[in-house]
Structures are given as structure tokens and as C-alpha cells.
């Protein structure tokens, strides 16, 4: 049984892990950069240590300093969360060499699955179909011939890729050379490895992933699929479970395929096996994310499992306490990612101080957030501020609760994508479940005009004054028009729902 765990991460995922540790009676050790000294995970943890300056390379990616803090605090394990060092095999190995338990897959599994070509070969070896493609490109000179053999359009991908980086799509041969150079440069900067491979670009497909969890005793359990087709620039922004197009037979097929891949990799801890699903119901292995996923709450809300708790118990040497037959998923869950980006300004990152925030609540709503009044949103880290998950008896019930939750969510001081998410949820094709990975490209959502944005900024300033002056913040009711449906709660006030005294 583990006693004290250092969390090598920040933000909402660090807070999520702190809570799981407290549930299990374990001590939590937080690390924080100089920019994060007032963060919620720092205040909630049992101990907290500054890991370095604001830049991630000198703080959350500083392996030597993290291990030094782990030794000084007496931690016996490290949980990496997701992002940063979560899929870094060298870090996992360094933890083990320092006598620390790494809460995640083994270093060998991370290395195997982190190489996209090696993972594709592994899937093929256990009878799981893969997207047609090439092996690693030894030189760009071989690319034109391989691309013709695969057939345009093609996708150029980094073998060490992830998070939508190191990817370029090419429709014609004359664009190939430039796309290769751009993808290699991005991959080298992001992952330290510019090796590329080619893959058929599949269109009108769904992105379906299967959550798995394995222990140190050879048990690997699938926990069902998630629909992750709503993506912007290859980044998921809305996820749900189950998928509307995955019936019992296909679900069994995907589950079995995911388990075969995981067992072949000697997988332990939580992870996901990702697939593409075409309109004919054919599935193709895409990759394995060897870590906890941002969207894990939707699986937890429908199955009743606690994936972080299970990770910690597995790390302490315990076997899984359930098997696939013990799981009876019920209802539907949808998750939306709230990020500090401005949809009305080409999704530019929004930095600054959050002067006021209020998170939604009520039946079927779960929020995991790093927000607090006074939070400084900096350019140093990922723009994710919070995750909202809504559960319902069916998909429409979950969708309605999500819309209600997003209307309740108030963030003043920085722009967020809440209006954009609300517009997506109201689209007829989303309501009907007509989804694919090109959904957002096909549905161009128009941002607010400059004049409307100025109204919203003025409203934010008034809201902040009222909040901190202790003024009356009640609002009168009026019918919601389309623009108010696209706005967060504080923006609704700007559309004519202020108290009459103003």
C-alpha cells in the first residue's frame, strides 16, 4: 500500500489526484512553478514544493528537480497525471531507479506504444486492422512513391507524435515536400524526434476510443467506448459515452481488439486504445494513449469506477477488484473542455486574471477545475481551465444538462470557448449524432462581432465591480434568444438581463 504520492503535474488533474489520494487515506505532495504558487492543487495538497520558474522546461519537465523533491518529501510514488511527463519512458525509468513507484505503464510499454509505427506493427501482429500506411521514412526521397502507393489524400504523422502535433494533410503531390518539412520541424521541436511516416487520410470517419485498465497480474479490462469525433485542429473538445453508432456486437469487437493490443504490450494502469470507424462499420487501429485521458470522467460517470483510485491501488501492488462482467454501464455522459481561448478572435489564447468565476452544479453535473478568483492565466501552459461532465438517463437528457451547466458557468476576466461549445451542442447534426472528425470543418460557427465583444467586455467589468463591491447580483428574467444561448451566464446579463436598478 502506498503512503505518500507526489503529483508531477498541475491544474485540474493535479487536484483530481489529490482528492483520490485523500479518499484512500494517502498523503499528497504537490509541486508548483513560481507562476502557480496560488493554485488550488497547492492549497489542497498535504505538502507543496516549488519546482522552479514558470517555464515548463525548468519546472514541470525538470526531472532532476522533481526526483529531488520526491526524496525530500519522503514520497514513495509519483503520479504524472496527463501531459508533461506522463508518457515519458525515461522519466518512468528514472522513478523506478530512484526507488519510486511510477503510477502508470512500465517504461517498456510506454516506449513500445509511444512509437506509432511500433504500435501499428503490434496491433497487426494480434490481428487488429490498421490504417493503410508506410513504415518510418528513412529519407524524404522515398515519400512521393509511397504516397502514390497509399493514394492521396494522405496524412503525414510523427512516429513520436501526440496531441495533434507533427501532423500534416496533403491532397496532391506538389504539396508533399513542404508538408514533410513542416511536420518534421514541428515533431522535432515538440518531441525531440522528427521521424515521420505516411498514412491514408480517412475521411468521414469517427474517432472511437476504448478505455482499458490493467494490473500487474495480467488482468486487462475494457470499460467501454468513448465517442471523440468533435475535434478542433486534431484536439478533442467534446467527448461522450457511449457512441450512438456502436451497438453490442461492435462494442464486443472493439473491446476484444483493445484488450489484445494491451496484453501484447504488457500493459498496466489506465490507458486508451484508439480507433477510426468508417461509415460501413469497419474499424482501424489508430494508436494507444499510455496514460489517463482528459475525458476519463465520462467513463467514470457511466460505469461507477474511479480510474485514478484504481491507478493508485494498482501502483501499490493490488489486483483489480472487479472484472468486465461486474460492470453495468448506465445512462449517457458528455464532457466539454473549457479552455482560455477566444472563439471570436481566431481562438487566440486568452491570458490575464480571472476576477470572478462560478462553476455549475446540480443533478448530473460534475466539474473538475483549476479556476479560482484571482487566478492568473499565463501563456506558459495548456489553456485547459476546466472540464464539465453531464450525465443523463439518455443522450438528450445529458445534452440538456450540459447546456444548462454551460449557461451557469461564469468566468470573468479571460475569454473562454463556452459560447462555441453551446453552439455546437445546439447544431441539428450534433443532436442527431451525425458526427465525424471533420464535423467542425463542415459546420462553420461564426464568432461574435467586435461590437458584441465590446458589450461583453463591458459587462464583465460591471460584473466584477458588483461582485467585489458586494452589490446586488440578482437578475431579472427574460426569454432567451439565440445569442443568449450562445453566451455564458455573465454574457447573458449583457444581453439585457441586468437588474433594473442599473
Task: Describe it.
The chain is of the alpha+beta class and 502 residues long. It folds into 4 domains: 4-103, Rossmann fold; 132-200, Dna Ligase, domain 1 (2-Layer Sandwich); 213-330, D-amino Acid Aminotransferase, Chain A, domain 1; 332-502, ATP-grasp fold, B domain (D-amino Acid Aminotransferase, Chain A, domain 1, 2-Layer Sandwich). Helices cover 35% and strands 25% of the residues. The protein has helices at residues 11-23, 40-44, 63-73, 89-97, 107-114, 116-125, 143-150, 176-191, 248-264, 296-303, 307-315, 395-408, 418-426, 428-431, 439-442, 450-469, 482-485, 489-494, and strands at residues 4-7, 27-33, 47-52, 77-79, 101-102, 154-162, 165-170, 196-200, 206-214, 220-232, 235-241, 269-277, 283-289, 332-339, 341-342, 348-349, 352-353, 356-358, 365-369, 376-377, 384-392, 410-412. Helix 4 runs antiparallel to helix 5 (107-114) and helix 12 packs antiparallel against helix 13. The longest helix has 20 residues, at 450-469. The model is unreliable at 471-502 (pLDDT under 50).
Number of domains: 4
In CATH, the architecture of the largest domain is: 2-Layer Sandwich
Strand order of the biggest β-sheet:
13-12-9-10-11-14-21-19
What name does CATH use for the topology of the largest domain? D-amino Acid Aminotransferase, Chain A, domain 1
Q: What percentage of the residues does DSSP assign to strands (E)?
A: 15-25%
Broad structural category: alpha+beta
Give the class-level CATH name of the largest domain: Alpha Beta
- The CATH superfamily of the largest domain bears the name ATP-grasp fold, B domain
Tell me, what's the shape? globular
Q: How is the biggest beta sheet arranged?
A: 8 strands, antiparallel
N-C termini distance: 59 Å
User: How many individual β-strands?
Assistant: 22
The helicity comes to 25-40%
> Helix count, per DSSP?
18
Mean pLDDT: 89
Radius of gyration: 23 Å
Uncertain segments: 471-502
Amino acid at each position: 500500500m502506498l503512503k505518500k504520492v507526489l503529483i508531477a503535474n498541475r491544474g485540474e488533474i493535479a487536484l483530481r489526484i489529490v482528492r483520490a489520494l485523500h479518499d484512500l487515506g494517502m498523503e499528497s505532495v504537490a509541486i508548483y512553478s513560481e507562476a502557480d504558487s496560488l493554485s488550488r492543487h497547492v492549497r489542497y495538497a498535504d505538502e507543496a514544493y516549488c519546482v522552479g520558474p514558470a517555464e515548463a522546461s525548468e519546472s514541470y519537465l525538470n526531472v532532476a528537480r522533481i526526483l529531488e523533491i520526491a526524496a525530500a518529501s519522503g514520497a514513495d510514488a509519483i503520479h504524472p497525471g496527463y501531459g508533461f511527463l506522463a508518457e515519458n519512458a525515461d522519466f518512468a525509468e528514472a522513478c523506478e531507479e530512484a526507488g519510486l513507484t511510477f503510477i502508470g505503464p512500465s517504461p517498456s510499454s510506454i516506449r513500445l506504444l509511444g512509437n506509432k509505427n511500433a504500435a501499428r506493427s503490434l496491433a497487426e501482429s494480434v490481428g487488429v486492422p490498421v490504417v493503410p500506411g508506410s513504415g518510418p521514412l528513412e529519407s524524404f526521397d522515398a515519400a512521393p512513391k509511397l504516397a502514390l502507393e497509399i493514394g492521396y489524400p494522405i496524412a503525414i504523422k510523427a512516429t513520436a507524435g501526440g496531441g495533434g502535433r507533427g501532423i500534416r494533410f496533403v491532397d496532391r503531390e506538389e504539396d508533399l515536400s513542404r508538408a514533410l518539412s513542416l511536420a518534421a520541424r514541428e515533431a522535432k521541436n515538440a518531441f525531440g524526434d522528427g521521424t515521420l511516416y505516411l498514412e491514408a487520410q480517412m475521411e468521414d470517419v469517427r474517432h472511437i476510443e476504448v478505455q482499458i485498465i490493467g494490473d500487474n497480474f495480467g488482468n486487462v479490462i475494457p470499460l467501454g467506448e468513448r465517442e471523440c469525433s468533435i475535434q478542433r485542429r486534431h484536439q478533442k473538445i467534446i467527448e461522450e459515452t457511449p457512441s450512438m453508432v456502436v451497438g453490442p456486437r461492435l462494442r464486443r469487437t472493439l473491446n476484444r481488439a483493445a484488450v489484445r493490443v494491451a496484453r501484447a504490450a504488457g500493459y498496466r494502469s489506465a490507458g486508451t486504445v484508439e480507433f477510426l470507424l468508417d461509415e460501413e462499420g469497419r474499424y482501424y487501429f489508430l494508436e494507444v494513449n499510455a496514460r489517463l485521458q482528459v475525458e476519463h470522467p465520462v467513463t467514470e460517470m457511466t460505469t461507477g469506477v474511479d480510474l485514478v483510485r484504481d491507478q493508485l491501488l494498482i501502483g501499490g501492488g493490488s489486483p483489480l477488484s472487479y472484472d468486465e462482467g461486474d460492470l453495468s454501464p448506465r445512462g449517457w455522459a458528455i464532457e466539454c473542455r473549457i479552455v482560455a481561448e477566444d472563439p471570436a478572435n481566431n481562438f487566440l489564447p486568452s491570458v490575464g486574471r480571472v476576477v470572478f468565476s462560478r462553476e455549475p452544479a446540480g443533478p448530473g453535473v460534475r466539474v473538475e477545475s483549476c479556476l479560482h478568483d484571482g487566478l492568473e492565466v499565463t501563456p506558459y501552459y495548456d489553456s485547459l481551465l476546466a472540464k464539465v461532465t453531464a450525465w443523463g438517463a439518455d443522450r438528450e437528457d445529458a445534452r440538456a444538462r450540459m447546456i444548462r451547466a454551460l449557461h451557469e458557468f461564469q468566468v470573468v476576466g479571460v475569454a473562454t470557448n463556452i459560447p462555441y461549445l453551446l453552439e455546437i451542442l445546439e447544431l441539428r447534426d450534433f443532436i442527431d449524432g451525425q458526427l465525424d472528425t471533420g464535423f467542425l470543418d463542415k459546420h462553420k460557427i461564426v464568432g461574435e462581432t467586435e461590437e458584441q465583444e465590446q458589450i461583453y467586455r463591458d459587462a464583465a467589468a460591471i460584473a466584477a465591480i458588483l461582485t467585489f463591491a458586494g452589490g446586488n447580483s440578482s437578475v431579472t428574467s427574460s426569454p432567451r434568444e439565440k445569442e443568449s444561448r450562445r453566451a455564458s451566464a455573465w454574457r447573458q446579463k449583457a444581453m439585457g438581463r441586468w437588474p433594473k436598478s442599473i
